[in-house]
Amino acid sequence: MRSTRRAASSVLLTCLVLAGCSPTSLGGSAASESASATSGASGAGGAGRAIAVGAGPQKTYTVQKQPAAGTCHYRYLKGEPIEDPKCTPGAVSPAVTQSNLKSTICRKGGYTSGIRPSTSVTGREKKLNAASYGFTGRMGDAEYDHLISLQLGGDPNDYRNLWVEPADPGHKRGSGVNNAKDPVETKLHAAVCKGTVTLAAAQKAIVTDWTTALSRLGLG
């Protein structure tokens, strides 16, 4: 038995040193290596996970099923509302890539208005999503928000990319939507279009934590 173990160890050592074998070729997990490679290649996704890819812009949008009522929970950082990553992990549009930025989100004349779902669809989704998150505040002060904004290549109507975002701390009741997340999205969009950061890096930063997205990328 001992001689057999010594022989196996010798073969293993010889394979690693002389033949350049990888742990996978010696019985390691090829699936786990493949998953890591996929996450790394995407350059997007909180906690090392790749961001989901949605259906992209549609000629006709339909009301999307939302998470069950009461199953989503807001987090708060310095009073700012943060989405539940289990319910709203984000989703990107396959129509926007690093190679076609000039013809999509960075083109003059705008991009988002032509792909945005109608309020007849998002209005119904907003009510359903409010129930998902247990939101009971004034609906007019809450934004049905794309976690990855349309100007950053977020999917227009994937339920994973939309959440009822409550008003910021100190927001005056009845004054409508005005969230601190919006200028963050605008600055990220400008940086992507200038080539300061990649599309994937901006998307990853905003799904990880929108309140620190700019500082993570050295933008403020």
Characterise the protein shown here.
There is one protein chain. With about 220 residues, the protein is mainly alpha-helical. About 35% of the residues lie in helices and about 10% in strands. The protein has helices at about 1-20, 30-40, 120-135, 180-195, 200-210, 215; strands at about 50-55, 75, 80, 90, 145, 160-165. The strands form 3 sheets. The chain has a two-stranded parallel sheet with strand order 1-4. A two-stranded antiparallel sheet has the order 2-3. A two-stranded antiparallel ribbon has the order 5-6. β2 (about 75) and β3 form a beta hairpin. It is globular. The protein starts with a helix and ends with a helix.
Topology:
Elements: H1 2-18, H2 30-42, E1 52-53, E2 75-77, E3 80-82, E4 91-92, H3 119-133, E5 143-146, E6 162-165, H4 181-194, H5 199-208, H6 213-216
Parallel strand pairs: 1-4
Antiparallel strand pairs: 2-3, 5-6
- Percent of residues in helices comes to 25-40%
Poorly predicted residue ranges: 1-46
Overall shape: it is globular
Please summarize the sheet with the most strands. Answer: 2 strands, parallel
Strand order in the sheet with the most strands: 1-4
Cα radius of gyration in angstroms: 22 Å
Number of strands: 6
Order of helices and strands: HHEEEEHEEHHH
Total helices: the number is 6
Percent of sequence in beta strands? 5-15%
Structural class: mainly alpha
**What does the average pLDDT come to?**
81
Measured between the Cα atoms of the first and last residue, the distance is 64 Å
